Amino acid sequence: MYRDPEAASPGAPSHDVLLVSAVVTVSLSVTVVLCSLCHWCQRKLGKRYKNSLETVGTPDSGRGRSEKKAIKLPAGGKVVNTAPVPGQTPHDESDRRTEPRSSVSDLVNSLTSEMLMLSPGSEEDEAHEGCSRENLGRIQFSVGYNFQESTLTVKIMKAQELPAKDFSGTSDPFVKIYLLPDKKHKLETKVKRKNLNPHWNETFLFEGFPYEKVVQRVLYLQVLDYDRFSRNDPIGEVSIPLNKVDLTQMQTFWKDLKPCSDGSGSRGELLLSLCYNPSANSIIVNIIKARNLKAMDIGGTSDPYVKVWLMYKDKRVEKKKTVTMKRNLNPIFNESFAFDIPTEKLRETTIIITVMDKDKLSRNDVIGKIYLSWKSGPGEVKHWKDMIARPRQPVAQWHQLKA
C-alpha cells in the first residue's frame, strides 16, 4: 500500500533525495508483494487443478469402440448356453492411485481453512443437505428388437455424474444387465477404472428370444463399483418394462439412477462422535450406539459389533473393534478408540467404520459401512468438517449405513 513520504524535518536530506528514496522503496515493496501473491496463487490454483482432474476421472483408451456379447435362447426363452458370454474382464489389480499429496502448513489454522475451502461439501452439498434423494448420476442405453432374427439388442453407452464410492474419491463402475424375472443369468460390462463419467459402448444380444416373451420381461440395469478387497458396492439401478418400449427400432434413453432395492435404507444407522486434537496429533472415535440394524440371522436378529479402520491413502494402518452385542438390533456400545494422525497426513486419511454381525458357524456378515474423510459423501464430509472446525470437542452425528 502506497504511503506519502514523511514531511521533511530540519536537517533532513533534500526533497529530491527523499523523493527518489520513496520511489525505490515503493517499487521494492510492490515487487515483493506481487512475488508472494504469485507464488500463493500458483500453489492454490495448482491444487484445484489437480483436484479437478481427479474428479473427472481417467479417460478410457477403449472409448468409442462398440463390443458385442450374446446370450442364445431357444424358442421357449430359456438359456441353453451362455457361452461365449464373457464375464467381467480381468480387472487391473495394480495399486490404486490417489491424488498427489498437497503441501500443508504446519499451523493447524492454515490446514483447517484449506480443508474447509477444498472439501466437496463446503457449499453446494450443504445447500442440498436437506434433500432426501441423493444424486446417483444417470445412465444412457439403447434397446431394440430384430424380428427376423428374434434377437433383443441392448447397448450400454455411458454414465454421468456417478457418486464416489471409494475412499480415494472416485469409483470403478461397471453395469450388470438382467431380463427380470430371470435373476440367474446376467451380462456385465467392463470395469472403468477411476471414472465417474464412464463410456462403455458395449452391445449385448439376447438371441432366439420370441417377441411375445420379450414383452413380458423387464430390462434391469444395475451400476456397481468394483472392489477387489470386498464385495462390490451398488451405485444405482434402472428398470424399464419392455412392453412399454417401441422395440421396432433402437430406442435410446437417459435414465436417472435410483437407489438399489437392497440399498442402505434398510441397514440401520450408527451414532458416533469424532474428536480431533491438533496438539496431540490424534483423533478419538467414539462408537456410541446403533438403531434399526438389519437382521442378518435366521431368528430375525443380529449380533453386532463395530470395526474401525484407519486408512492412509490406500493403505490400512490400524484396526480396532468393539465388543459383540448379542441378539440386539439397537445396541449401545459407548467405546472410544484413539488414532495417531499427524497433521500433515490428515487430508489423505480415511476412517472406515463397519458394522458386522458375529456368526459362530460361518463367516461374519457385513451389515453396513461408513467412510469418514474430507472427500466422502455429503453427510460424512459435514461430520469431518465439523470435527476440524471444533478441535478438542467431541462432535456427534448419526450416519446411515451403506452397503
UniProtKB/TrEMBL annotation:
<keyword id="KW-0968">Cytoplasmic vesicle</keyword>
<protein>
    <recommendedName>
        <fullName>Synaptotagmin-7</fullName>
    </recommendedName>
</protein>
<keyword id="KW-0106">Calcium</keyword>
<keyword id="KW-0597">Phosphoprotein</keyword>
<dbReference type="GO" id="GO:0030672">
    <property type="term" value="C:synaptic vesicle membrane"/>
</dbReference>
<dbReference type="GO" id="GO:0006906">
    <property type="term" value="P:vesicle fusion"/>
</dbReference>
<dbReference type="Pfam" id="PF00168">
    <property type="entry name" value="C2"/>
</dbReference>
<keyword id="KW-0966">Cell projection</keyword>
<feature type="transmembrane region" description="Helical">
    <location>
        <begin position="20"/>
        <end position="41"/>
    </location>
</feature>
<feature type="domain" description="C2">
    <location>
        <begin position="135"/>
        <end position="255"/>
    </location>
</feature>
<keyword id="KW-0564">Palmitate</keyword>
<dbReference type="InterPro" id="IPR035892">
    <property type="entry name" value="C2_domain_sf"/>
</dbReference>
<feature type="compositionally biased region" description="Basic and acidic residues">
    <location>
        <begin position="90"/>
        <end position="100"/>
    </location>
</feature>
<comment type="similarity">
    <text>Belongs to the synaptotagmin family.</text>
</comment>
<dbReference type="GO" id="GO:0000149">
    <property type="term" value="F:SNARE binding"/>
</dbReference>
<dbReference type="GO" id="GO:0030670">
    <property type="term" value="C:phagocytic vesicle membrane"/>
</dbReference>
<dbReference type="GO" id="GO:0005765">
    <property type="term" value="C:lysosomal membrane"/>
</dbReference>
<keyword id="KW-0479">Metal-binding</keyword>
<keyword id="KW-0770">Synapse</keyword>
<dbReference type="GO" id="GO:0005516">
    <property type="term" value="F:calmodulin binding"/>
</dbReference>
<keyword id="KW-0268">Exocytosis</keyword>
<dbReference type="GO" id="GO:0001786">
    <property type="term" value="F:phosphatidylserine binding"/>
</dbReference>
<keyword id="KW-0458">Lysosome</keyword>
<comment type="subunit">
    <text>Homodimer. Can also form heterodimers with SYT6, SYT9 and SYT10. Interacts with calmodulin (CALM1, CALM2 or CALM3). Interacts with CD63; required for localization to lysosomes. Interacts with APP.</text>
</comment>
<dbReference type="GO" id="GO:0051050">
    <property type="term" value="P:positive regulation of transport"/>
</dbReference>
<dbReference type="GO" id="GO:0001778">
    <property type="term" value="P:plasma membrane repair"/>
</dbReference>
<keyword id="KW-0812">Transmembrane</keyword>
<keyword id="KW-0449">Lipoprotein</keyword>
<dbReference type="GO" id="GO:0030424">
    <property type="term" value="C:axon"/>
</dbReference>
<dbReference type="GO" id="GO:0005778">
    <property type="term" value="C:peroxisomal membrane"/>
</dbReference>
<dbReference type="InterPro" id="IPR001565">
    <property type="entry name" value="Synaptotagmin"/>
</dbReference>
<dbReference type="InterPro" id="IPR037732">
    <property type="entry name" value="C2A_Synaptotagmin-7"/>
</dbReference>
<dbReference type="GO" id="GO:0017158">
    <property type="term" value="P:regulation of calcium ion-dependent exocytosis"/>
</dbReference>
<dbReference type="GO" id="GO:0005544">
    <property type="term" value="F:calcium-dependent phospholipid binding"/>
</dbReference>
<dbReference type="GO" id="GO:0030276">
    <property type="term" value="F:clathrin binding"/>
</dbReference>
<dbReference type="GO" id="GO:0042734">
    <property type="term" value="C:presynaptic membrane"/>
</dbReference>
<keyword id="KW-1133">Transmembrane helix</keyword>
<feature type="domain" description="C2">
    <location>
        <begin position="266"/>
        <end position="399"/>
    </location>
</feature>
<dbReference type="InterPro" id="IPR000008">
    <property type="entry name" value="C2_dom"/>
</dbReference>
<feature type="region of interest" description="Disordered">
    <location>
        <begin position="73"/>
        <end position="106"/>
    </location>
</feature>
<keyword id="KW-0576">Peroxisome</keyword>
<keyword id="KW-1003">Cell membrane</keyword>
